[in-house]
User: What shape does this take?
Amino acid sequence: MRRIILVVFLLISGICQAQMVQVVEKEQEVNGVIRRGQQLSVHIDTKTTEKAWKDYLSKKAGRVKSSKGVLTVEGAVIDTISSTPLRVISLVGSNAQGSNIWWTLDMGVAYVDKDATPKEHAAAESFLRGFARKLYREDVLRQINEAEEVLRATKSEQDRVVKEANSIQSQIDKNRQRKQDLEAELVRNAEELKQLELNVEHNVKQQEVSRQQVQDMEKSVEAVRDKLKAIK
Assistant: This one.
C-alpha cells in the first residue's frame, strides 16, 4: 500500500511538473566558442532526457552526431522553424531539479536570435516545448505503468493473504469440529463405562444367585442319594 501511495504521488508530481516548461535565452561555451541559444529546463533525470532528446532530434531534424557531449546535426531540416537547412549544436546537462537542454541554430547567414529572427526564435522555442510535453507524457505513462504493476502485485498479495486467511479459518473450523467430535465421543465412552459397570454389578448378583442355586441343587441330589441308601 505504501508503494502504491508513493507511485501515485510521483504520478501527480510528474503531471504537475509537465506544466512547468521553461525556455530561456542563454549563452554557452562549446569547444571554446561562446554561442547564444535557447535552454529548456525539465524535471526529468539527465540520462532519460539525453536519450529522448537524441531520438527526438533524429526523427525531427536528421542524423545526430555526438562528440564529447556535444550533439550536432548538419543540414537539419526542421520545416516548422526554417525553410532552409540548419546546423544544430546542442548540449544536455543537469540541474538541481532535473536536466537542461541547450541548443543553438545556425541558419547559414545568421543564428536564430530573439531580436534578429523573432519568427524563427519563437518556432524554435515551440519546438523545445513540444519535446518537453512529449517527454513529460512518456514519463507520466511510465509512472502509470509502474503504478499498475504495483497494483497488480498488491492485488496478488491481497489474494494470497485472503486465501491464507480462508485456509486458517478452515483449519480452525475443522479443529473445532474435531473437538466437538472428541467431546461427544468422551460422553459416549463415559456412558458405555457406566453401563459396563452396571453390567458387572448385575453379573456379580447373577453369579451369587447361580451359586446359591448350585448349592441348593447339590443338597437336593444328596437328599435323593440318602433315600436311595435307605432302601434295603
In short: The radius of gyration is 50 Å. Strands lie at 22-30, 33-42, 65-67, 70-76, 86-94, 99-106.
